[in-house]
Write a structure and sequence with these properties.
This protein is α/β, with parallel strands linked by helices and 264 residues long. The chain has helices at residues 49-56, 78-84, 100-105, 112-115, 119-132, 148-161, 178-193, 205-208, 231-240; strands at 11-20, 23-33, 38-42, 63-68, 71-72, 85-88, 166-170, 197-201, 213-218, 221-226, 245-250, 258-263. It has a six-stranded mixed beta sheet with strand order 6-7-8-3-9-10, with helices on both faces. It has a four-stranded antiparallel beta sheet with strand order 2-1-4-5, covered by helices on one side.
């Protein structure tokens, strides 16, 4: 899924920091994500995972530098950023009286200028996102009539509808059953193959080990960034989680080696 290293990074940070009063939530975070790459953010509770994603999405005051598709974050308009980056947080508030299709359609807001020019295309994008997340039959229902897992699928579909080249997801597979997890992962793979980049917070380490890279945070700092296939990455995960993990390799015919993790 990873792209050649000669491409310019889709997302970069230099010495990113977040301060809350006298408390430093993030400090000196420098990262680089190439187009076509899925990077999973892992770390213990309170490590700063969601804070990092919120800072990257422009929802958290920060110090340091963010470059989005090679452009300085602070030099870009809100609309330009919204076209280049999609965001899905945990437990995002959405009016319960909105119907599913309208919530997903909100994902097309950054492309308002194109909406009037090609209404058919915009409808097709929304319909495809609904279909991918198994929401077509629920399109007319209000969110107040949905389960937690169904609401999660709606929020995923809304972020998917942006079709941004850089995607941020905080616990995207939370509350989803396995078939819908697989639907989202297949969609993600297709976007990566098209050159998009994804940064996702993952508490479930076996899901994170399917990513191209893992960014490990501990106490607001980057402990390690690397491939799940690298021994150094697995060693850093052990360190971050206080030596409480066991890693096992799985070799499946026709695929590269995969790693799974169990509690020690």
């Amino acid at each position: 899924m990873s792209s050649p290293s000669t491409l310019n990074p889709a997302l970069q940070t230099h010495e990113l920091g977040v301060q809350f009063g006298a408390l430093g939530l993030l400090s000196g975070v420098s990262l680089s994500i190439q187009p076509g790459t899925w990077c999973a953010i892992c770390g213990p509770n309170g490590a700063g995972k969601s804070t990092l994603l919120r800072a990257l999405a422009g929802l958290q005051s920060h110090s340091g530098q963010i470059l989005l598709m090679g452009r300085e974050w602070n030099d870009m308009s809100t609309l330009a950023r919204a076209q280049l980056m999609s965001w899905m947080g945990q437990a995002q508030p959405v009016p319960a009286d909105l119907c599913v299709a309208d919530v997903v359609r909100l994902g097309r807001w950054p492309h308002t200028a194109q909406l009037a020019a090609d209404l058919q295309k915009e409808s097709e994008v929304v319909a495809q996102c609904l279909h991918t997340m198994g929401l077509t039959m629920l399109a007319g229902r209000s969110l107040s009539q949905l389960s937690g897992g169904e609401c999660q699928r709606v929020l995923l579909a809304r972020a998917m509808a942006v079709q941004a080249p850089v995607m941020l997801f905080d616990e995207p597979l939370n509350h989803l059953d396995i078939p819908h997890q697989q639907s989202w992962l297949r969609w993600l793979k297709s976007r990566l193959q098209a050159g998009a980049a994804a940064l996702t917070v993952m508490h479930e380490l076996n899901q994170a080990l399917a990513a191209d890279q893992i960014l490990i945070l501990r106490q607001g700092r980057v402990l390690h960034q690397g491939s799940p296939g690298d021994a150094a990455t697995r060693q850093a995960l052990q360190e971050a989680f206080e030596q409480s993990l066991e890693f096992h390799a799985i070799d499946t015919e026709g695929t590269s080696r995969r790693w799974v993790v169990l509690p020690r």
